[in-house]
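Practice set, problem 2.
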Amino acid sequence: MFFYELHEGDDEVYSDVLVVSESEWEPQEFFELVQRVRRDVQDRFTQDTLSEAIAAVLERDYGFVFVSDDRLAAAVNVSTDEADNFLADLGADLDDEDDDDGDDDDEPRGDFRTIVADLDIDGGSRLN
């Protein structure tokens, strides 16, 4: 098995995708394949990210396996703090969060995206 990674984003926010192949691809050959696929899908993909769209095409057309969250059998949160170790719920869904059961344990649930905002903290206050 040979593992290949696709990175998308800048230095602060990025997304990584893994694809696996039973065949070994030379790095330059893999790069050229990814570039061809990127050009084909960049303006019309339906996945959340360009890297996921490329991975889906690599799986569909070139025999790669896209290692997506959908394929996870288990996920474990690990920490040096014993209380922070747990088996994550793979079935977590954002629609299930509004259950009003009063359980506010502050554990993250559902899918998350990163947002980076530049704040001008020295710019003074602004009253609305």
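Problem 2, part (b): a different protein.
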Amino acid sequence: MGLTVAVARIFDLIFLILFITILLTWFPKINWYNEPFRSMKAFSEIFLAPFRKLIPPIGMIDISPIVAFFCLGLLRNILVGLFASMGL
């Protein structure tokens, strides 16, 4: 169960960082060049950039984070299920 729990917790941490970063984009006074915002933004872009290339914004709304959360959730469920079925 150790690897299964570790993978689940890593994905939970990724989701949390993505969620906080997305929420912070609603505040225009955030200076993204200061820490810890710069690191959060850089980390989030690893996961969001591929989806932003595929899905253009609809007006002023960027729906790529929704697709990213869906795909990452699907990947999390597959990996956790696979590791759990193997007894890891």
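Answer key, part (b): Residues 2-85 form one domain. The CA atoms of residues 51 and 66 lie 9 Å apart.
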